[in-house]
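FAQ: What does the model actually see?

It sees only this:
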Amino acid sequence: MKKIVLFDLDGTLTDSSEGILNSIRYMLEKKGLAISDTETLRSFIGPPLADSLKALYDISEAEAQEAVESYREYYADQGIKQLTVYPGVEKLLTDLSEDYSLAIATSKPEFFAEQVIENTGLTKYFTGIFGADLAGDRSKKADVITYALEQLEGDTAVMVGDRKFDILGAKDNQLKSIGVLYGFGDRQELAEAGADLLVEKALEIPLALQRLF
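And it is asked to produce this:
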């Protein structure tokens, strides 16, 4: 039985910042919310969108969910196409798929994650794509990881991601984790969250996995 490698999507396999930030700006403008500086907007990437909205704008759960629907309007039409695959990722997946069972575990809605993986031509590398549900009942990274592990066949797993949510979600599921430094998080964030190893480039991930498995 192969060992499982769970990958985050945004900031780990794809640089999706353009599409996500454009979708956020559209949402905020449509809902009449102040548009923050780019650094603050980038903080939306990773955690559940509704949680970020409630924290930054002091709005209700219902208002946050309405805003999320506005975000999805733009994202489904345009934002989903505004991304690139990070350098080295396809070679990484090609090599790893020979020895490991690869899967996606993302806080992005599963419906959109499946489209992204298909659009980028990466579907063949993954045994499963697991994400949040559109209703918001499964949005935390820890819950997504639990959901993925329940459906995958393997004796052990490692989580690979670029934000603290990936690392903390792995810990909640008693998994080891690798933090990538080329995504949307930084060294301090990932180290403080307790990542077992950090890598600068995608092609450093195989050696890191060998150290953890």
